[in-house]
Specification:
Oligomer: single chain
Protein name: DUF3379 domain-containing protein
Organism: Colwellia maritima
Helix content: 40-55%
CATH architecture of the largest domain: 2-Layer Sandwich
Shape: rod-shaped
CATH class of the largest domain: Alpha Beta
Structural class: alpha+beta
Pfam family, one: DUF3379
Radius of gyration: 48 Å
Keywords: Membrane, Transmembrane, Transmembrane helix
Strand order of the largest sheet: 2-3-4-7-6-5
CATH superfamily of the largest domain: MucB/RseB, C-terminal domain
InterPro entries: DUF3379
């Protein structure tokens, strides 16, 4: 016969373990349980009772924490916070857009600068016509603004020149870039449309052209020791008259 004494000894221990596991599952699931088996287990084992009390206290602490009163203005605060967050995001987007716009502006400026300072034309006449067409919409024969002789001569000092008397009604006088060269751009009132006069430094990269024209405009260039002076107008003007006025009124400083 087989000896069953070992099985008889281990059976109670296994049942005790199962009881302990069952107790823990029950008490963790519901510390306030009134199950009779759980209550009896607490009475029989002080450790189980202590565990149950600790879990009950912890459960009560959680309940108390959940009872924190909600401030009356919590809704307003949350909305205000949301507004701040939204505003911050919009500012970030705006900064990104501005950065992109600035980048585009910088690139555009570099392109314009390159075009202004690059030698795109071979002679004075071609560039003078292109320059006048580019700024044609900026000036009109009906403009009322006038520039004094003193203001004109102040700018002429850059080219060591001086006009003795007024050559006509001067609408505008300002520096410009003439194929990359710092030049003086003058706009006079003409017979039917404005007359443009350029005072340009003498440079070898632009071939001197004494006369030039297209279907609409005409021009003539005067060569002086210090600079070239170019006159561009519509075909109703007498360019020889303008040449004589310029020659008789300009003085070059030594």
């Amino acid at each position: 016969m087989k000896d069953n004494s070992m099985n008889d000894k281990t059976a109670p221990a296994s049942a005790s373990i199962m009881d302990d596991l069952h107790f823990r599952r029950s008490i963790f699931a519901n510390p306030m349980t009134q199950d009779e088996d759980v209550i009896e287990a607490q009475k029989a084992d002080p450790a189980k009772k202590r565990l149950a009390q600790e879990l009950c206290q912890f459960d009560e602490q959680i309940k108390q924490a959940m009872k924190i009163p909600v401030p009356d203005d919590l809704c307003d605060k949350l909305l205000l916070r949301q507004t701040f967050v939204s505003h911050k995001q919009e500012k970030r987007k705006t900064r990104i857009h501005l950065a992109l716009a600035a980048s585009v502006a910088i690139i555009a400026g570099l392109v314009v600068n390159y075009l202004q300072f690059s030698y795109s034309y071979n002679n004075l006449g071609d560039y003078a016509l292109a320059h006048v067409y580019h700024e044609q919409s900026m000036f009109s024969n009906n403009d009322n603004k006038r520039v004094s002789l003193a203001s004109l001569n102040k700018k002429m000092t850059t080219f060591s020149g001086n006009f003795n008397t007024s050559m006509g009604e001067l609408i505008a006088a300002d520096y410009c870039r003439f194929d990359g060269m710092k030049s003086l751009h003058l706009v006079f009132k003409g017979l039917t449309d404005v007359v443009t006069v350029f005072v340009v430094p003498k440079e070898e990269h632009l071939t001197f052209t004494d006369k030039f024209s297209d279907k609409t405009l005409q021009g003539e260039s005067l060569s002086f020791e210090n600079a070239n002076i170019i006159v561009v107008s519509d075909k109703n003007e007498s360019l020889s008259k303008w040449q004589n006025v310029i020659k008789n009124n300009i003085t070059w400083l030594i």
